[in-house]
Structures are given as structure tokens and as C-alpha cells.
Amino acid sequence: MSDAADILGIAAKWFQDGHKVALGTVIRTWGSAPRQAGSLIAIRDDGAFEGSVSGGCIEGTVIERAAQTIATGQSQQLEFGVADELAWSVGLACGGKIEILLEALGAQFSAATLAAVQSAQKSGQALVRAVALRASQERLLTPGSGSDVLSEAATRAARLDRAEVVQIDGVNWFLSVFNPQLDLVIVGAAHIAQPLAQMAQLCSYSVRIIDPRTAFATSERFPGVAISHDWPDEELARAPLGPRSALVALTHDPKIDDPALRVALTSPCFYVGALGSKKTHAARLARLAAGGMPLDACTRIKGPIGLAIGAANPAEIAVAILAQITQELRLSSSENASEPAQPAASVRNPGLKS
């Protein structure tokens, strides 16, 4: 789960135990604000709290104001300008501005809303809570399920994993995103897979290794990673790829890689990549096409895999792969996205040429 979902879980437990709870959410930031929009703090009626909305410079004031929200049941919007001197003391290079929405759990942020967010998290579904600022109105939106302007904005926010304020018909709506955990499926327990799995976990991915070769896919080589020794198409039928999934095929063995790619190309996953030279990739595309895969689907495959950073060893290749995955996740739906980098055709490793 995301940090926000974890904090909501703690808030729910407090609420169920009979405490009154306020929730503070960062709704906008300017300058070098230390926490991004969507960051949460849960504050209990006895002053206990979980989460953070800054580097520590405004939490005390937020907790004090939360007592008012708990007492009155009325939401508040707070604005803080963090001076340069104070910013430096909490580890920032310069000042910034933070806007916080304080709400009483059970009032503005209803118990039903909390239950819906938790249910979506458990089922692996994305959910966006849209709050009309200064209007005490909210909507719960499932990304991709609506065609109105607000629903489309929610879909975009969920795709970018970014809470934001949007203005629609003169009303400012804050979109709070609750996404399921990112999912990385690595097909092939190759040497590149080891640093890639570690780096992906640091980036909050749930990592799965699929490789029927039991000598490669071992808990000793991949500690703390879910491992399947089934064939990829069988494993992915049991645990399907979703919109928050990325798949990388690393075995160089068509018997293992191709079934995984066929499943991925017919799934809603946001990234598909495959290891190999340009020659290897051309042969791969020909095989997939001969097997009935449409050409436009095949073009989804990033191959040769990774950004062109001149990677020369397994760890650097893993960096290039994870960077390309991140680029696809964060920039592909952004209006301000830069032109995508070229595939990593310049990766230099004799062991990867075929």
C-alpha cells in the first residue's frame, strides 16, 4: 500500500476504537516544500499523530488546528509560508509554501468514504477522491470509468500517481489519489534481474520473479521476492497483470519470454520490455506476428530494453530498465512529457549480444 493508505488504516483503527480523528492532506505546494500533494497526517483527539505534511516545521501548528476541526467537525484550509531560515533548519535549501486541508474523519471525510478507499486498496483497484474546496462536496471516482471532465481529470491523476487541484466550471477540486501498489513482473531470473528487483523494491514496487528454471529462481538469489517456477502464461493467468503492472522479459529464451509477452500485450499493463539486441528483437517481433499477434500490439514492446545511457554491466542495465519503466509510468500521460528517449541499443555487454 501507499503511505497514504497506511495512514488511513491507522486513522480507521483509531476511529473504530472510539477516538475522534482529523486528517490533514497537503493539497498544494510551491517552492521547495518537503512533502508532495496528497501527503497525509492523521491526528487523534489526544494529540497522537501518524504521517507528515512537512519536514517537521509546521506539524505542531497543524496538530493544534486539528483540535479545532475535531471539536467543531468543520474542515479548514491552512496556508503556510516556510521562511528561508526555518527551511534550512529542517533540511531544505530554500523556503516554500504549503496548503493543507484539515477534515474531521466521520464528517467531511466520511466513514463510508474511508471504507470505500480501503476496499479498493484490498481489491487492487485505484480510487480517486475528489473534494470541492470550500464547497463541502466530494465524489469517489474510479479511474477510466467516466467521460465527464472531472472523471477524466481523475483518470489522469491516477495514471500519473499525482494528487492535484483542478478547476472545473469555476470550482477548485482536489483530487486525492489512492492507487494500488506498483507491480513489476520479471520473467527470467537472470543476473540483471537481481539488481533490478532490489531497485524496484526501493521504488515501492511489489516484485515477482517468474522462471521455470529452478536453479536460477531461488530465494537465496532473490531474498524477499515472490518467486514462481511455473510457465509465465500459467502464472499470469493466476495473478493477472493490471494497469499498475510492468513486465520485463530477460531470459533470451523464446520458450519462456514469448508466452509472457503474448499475455502482457493483451493486458492493461503500462510497460512491456524485452532484453536483446536489435537483431534479436526483430526476430522476436516476427515470431509474435507469425503467431497471430497484431503489429500495433507488438510495437508496445520496448526492445532493446532500457534507456540509452551506455549501460555496461548488470546493475547499470537495471538502472536503464527501471528508468524507462519510470518514464513510461510518469510521463506517458503527461501533457508536458518530453520526447521519449531512444531504446538502449548502445548497451555494451558481450553477453547480451545474439
What are the SSEs and their pairings?
Layout: H1 3-16, E1 21-31, E2 40-44, E3 49-51, H2 59-72, E4 76-82, H3 84-89, E5 96-104, H4 111-122, E6 127-132, E7 137-141, H5 149-160, E8 164-168, E9 171-178, E10 182-187, H6 193-202, E11 205-210, E12 226-228, H7 232-238, E13 245-249, H8 254-265, E14 271-274, H9 278-290, H10 295-298, E15 301-302, H11 314-331
Parallel strand pairs: 10-11, 10-13, 11-12, 13-14, 14-15
Antiparallel strand pairs: 1-2, 1-5, 2-3, 4-5, 6-7, 6-9, 8-9
Helix pairs in contact: 1-4, 6-11, 7-8
Describe this structure in words.
This protein is an alpha/beta fold and about 350 residues long. It folds into two domains: about 5-180, no CATH class; about 180-350, Rossmann fold, CATH 3.40.50. Helix content is about 35%, strand content about 25%. It contains eleven helices and 15 strands. Strands 12-11-10-13-14-15 form a six-stranded parallel beta sheet, sandwiched between helices. Strand 6 (about 125-130) and strand 7 (about 135-140) form a beta hairpin. Helix 1 (about 5-15) packs across helix 4, helix 6 packs across helix 11 (about 315-330) and helix 7 packs parallel to helix 8. The two termini are about 40 Å apart. Mean pLDDT is about 85; it is low at about 335-354.
